[in-house]
Amino acid sequence: MLLEIKDLHASINGKEILKGLNLKVNRGEVHAIMGPNGTGKSTLASIIAGRDIYDISKGEIYYKDKELLDMAIEDRAREGIFIGFQYPVEIPGVSMTNFMRTAVNEIRQYRGEEPLSAAEFLAMMEDRKKLLELHSKLTNRSVNEGFSGGEKKRNEIFQMAMLNPELAILDETDSGLDIDALRVVANGVNKLRRPDNATVVITHYQRLLDYIVPDFVHILYEGKIVKTGPKELALELEEKGYDWVKNEIAK
Amino acid sequence: METNFSLQSFLVEQYKNNQKTIKEGDSSKLAQMRDKAFEAFAENGFPDKSMDNWRSTDLTKALSHDYKILLQAPPYNPVDSYFKCNIKDFDTFMFTFLNGWYVHKNVPLTVFPDGIIVGSLAHAKKEYPEIVDKYLGTIAKDNNNPMLNLNGAFMQDGAFVYVPEGVQISKPLQIVNIVNTKEDLLIQNRNLIIVEKNAALKLVHCDDSVTTTDTFINSVSEIYVGQNAEVSYYKLENKDSQSLLINSLYVKQENDSRFLSNGITFNSGVTRNTITVNIDGSNCDADVNGLYLVDKQQKVDNYVRINHNKPHSRSSQLYKGIMDDQASGSFTGYVYVEKDAQKTEAYQTNNNIALTDEASVGANPFLEIYADDVKCSHGATIGQLDNEALFYMRQRGICERNSRMLLMYAFAMEVVNKIDIEALHKQTDDMVSRRLRGELSICDMCELHCGDHTELHFEIDMSKI
To answer: I need a labelling partner for A138 at 20 to 30 A (CA). Which of A74, B34, B282, B361 fits?
Structure first.
């Protein structure tokens, strides 16, 4: 198993957000986590990334059979976890090229591999761009600086392609995207899909799932996964709305 | 250290007893100017922290220190054996000064075929009195800088540079001030740089310590930028922790002239940089930039004043600092716009990063505007590194140390990127990245520590950081 979350309870400023969340992700799978705003979707992504503002009162997270919560932020990344952020931060003055080169080579170093030379690295960037059909010059600019919303999300997918993660968690990557940008993002995720990696797509809308076909759909509600089903669950949810879920639970 | 010793009284005595030596070769105008400066110094002494412009510069320790002064040029002593500037591909005309005196072998002034004159001010005042008298002391005028009085009284040697009308120097001129002494010296060089109408000069000015004694440098430079002339002035400071360096630069700009300065402080004991630009013409550009990267107990104080005395000119100031440990850095930026200086554009930015709670940062922007049709702005920030950016970088696998390094490097590069001499830009870029990694300290050969490192290519080869 790649990721296993057991009975996770997490709170921030004394307010409990996650209230016993369970999730299992195997290699080769694509999971979608859906749910209304404020139910803990982004909190889950943040905790997996390693943000230390949460108080974890109960539960465990195992990643590749290791206790994830004990690992440093960068070590999680080096072990293959990638988070596609909902609001990617702008870093003026740090060029995308320097940023990615540093990241790629630090990860390689962690794995005991030789750093890539400048030429090898540039070739890799070109290759990844081609794969994603990115024609923009995003890589010549400072990280996310002055990027539009769509450019930022495309850049997240580009970084994902460069870092080649084992577990990618895309936090509301579809929010604020027009159809074209949505296609680029979905296309990237599909192309990077392999039998030995897994993707967790966190989304508010069913729309993204027209392009990324999940193996499992989970509904996160009030800090717990209350329903899991095949891809059709997303359509049902879209049709019947979150009130339906509430009623289901009430029953 | 003798507690009762007063540097001011000592210097007053020295002047009285050695007037003849100090004034040797002075024109009558210069001798008079000197006496006036001396009287002002005898009366007012050193600046103290009660003075508005000197609040951040602490001279206390120096004022009871028994310094030696060298009133005569030392015998010829080539610096080649212990100093070499090895900035890669940096092709310059280099002139060196040792302990304040021009190092030469019977050629105190070099005259280039196109008429450029470079060399010793002590000789220029005798050989070119008409030029020296016309400019010396006319540009560096400032009632708020008592260090000018002291320098004005004791100045003997320093760099003399004359670029005649219409002449553009073919490669940068490099002036290197080396301190190599076993004694604690008070060095007061005076540099006079004259760039006439339609002429152009790129000047790189380095302050180097070879030895680490308690030196006190009180340096004054005057730069005249003639009509439609262009001067780029680069100042690199990498001093040992015991040094006290007071630099005062005064610039006068005529119509249609351009002046760019970039001062980078890598290490310092106590450093104070004063830059005053008098824009006495229209359609001028003045671009004054600085970067200071200090740690431990280092102190850097930058004071910039731009006086817009005529209409239709533009100025900008960009100063950035990173303070680590208990270091302190301050920037005071003045923009003064005279009543008649309409259509002035003046911008000022000062950004600081304090890496620790003990680091101290001062940002003091001032606008004093008497014209009513101007565009002026100032902005000052003091902050820490962006935690969100650090988190984002670490999520991509970059360790915290390197994430911080990348952010600091990016912050500093905005200033470094304004250097328009390629070899110097590359070298400075390299020095900044090494400085941020804590590698760049004082070299025993040359303060710039240029010769003995492998190149880093920060832009491409990030694996080494």
So the answer is: A74
Length of chain A: 251
Q: Provide, rounded to the nearest whole percent, the portion of chain B with pLDDT above 90.
A: 71
Nearest-by-CA chain B residue for A117? B461
pLDDT digits (tens, 9 = 90+) for B20-63: 999 999 999 999 999 999 999 999 999 988 888 888 888 888 89
| Separation in Å, CA of A162 to nearest CA in chain B | 10
Distance CA B166, CA B171 (A): 15
Tokens of A230: 């095949």
Alpha-carbon gap, residue B345 to B376, rounded angstroms? 6
* Torsion on CA atoms B250, B252, B257, B258, rounded to nearest 10: 10
- Which pLDDT belongs to residue B111? 97
pLDDT digits (tens, 9 = 90+) for B120-162: 999 999 999 999 999 999 999 998 899 999 999 999 999 999 9
Which band of pLDDT confidence, cut at 50, 70 and 90, is reported for residue B334? very high
**Nearest CB to A93 within list B398, B414, B460:** B414
Cβ pair A163:B396 closer than 8 A: yes
Domain ranges (residues) in chain B: 7-464
User: What is the domain count for chain A?
Assistant: 1
Ordered DSSP codes for B410-430: HHHHHHHTT--SHHHHHHHHH
- Chains A and B: how many Cβ contacts under 8 Å? 92
pLDDT-derived band of residue B443, with 50, 70 and 90 as boundaries? very low
Angle, helix B400-416 to helix B387-395, in steps of 10 degrees: 120
Q: Which of B388, B411, B414 sits opposite A89 (nearest CB)?
A: B388
Q: Which tokens is B327 given?
A: 């270091």
- In angstroms, rounded to a whole number, what is the distance separating the alpha carbons of residues B444 and B240? 10
- Asked if A172 contacts A202 with a C-beta cutoff of 8 angstroms, the reply is yes
Nearest one of B83, B447, B430 to B268, comparing CA atoms: B447
Q: CA separation (Å) from B297 to A50, A129, B324, B434?
A: 35, 48, 9, 19
Q: What is the per-residue pLDDT for A133? A: 81
| Tens of pLDDT, residues B210-245 | 666 788 999 999 999 999 999 999 998 887 777 899
Q: Which domain holds residue A10?
A: 3-250
Chain A residues lying within 8 Å of B406, measured CB to CB: 91, 94, 98-99, 102
> Closest to A106 (Cβ–Cβ): which among B386, B388, B398?
B398
ipTM of the complex: 0.96
DSSP state of B339: T
Distance (Å, whole) CA B217 – CA B264: 17
pTM of the predicted model as reported, rounded to 2 decimal places: 0.86
Q: Could you tell me if A199 and A30 are in contact, meaning their C-beta atoms sit under 8 angstroms apart?
A: yes
A51 touching chain B per CB within 8 A:
yes
Q: Is A101 close to B465, i.e. CB distance below 8 A?
A: no
Q: Is the Cβ–Cβ distance between A8 and A16 less than 8 Å?
A: no
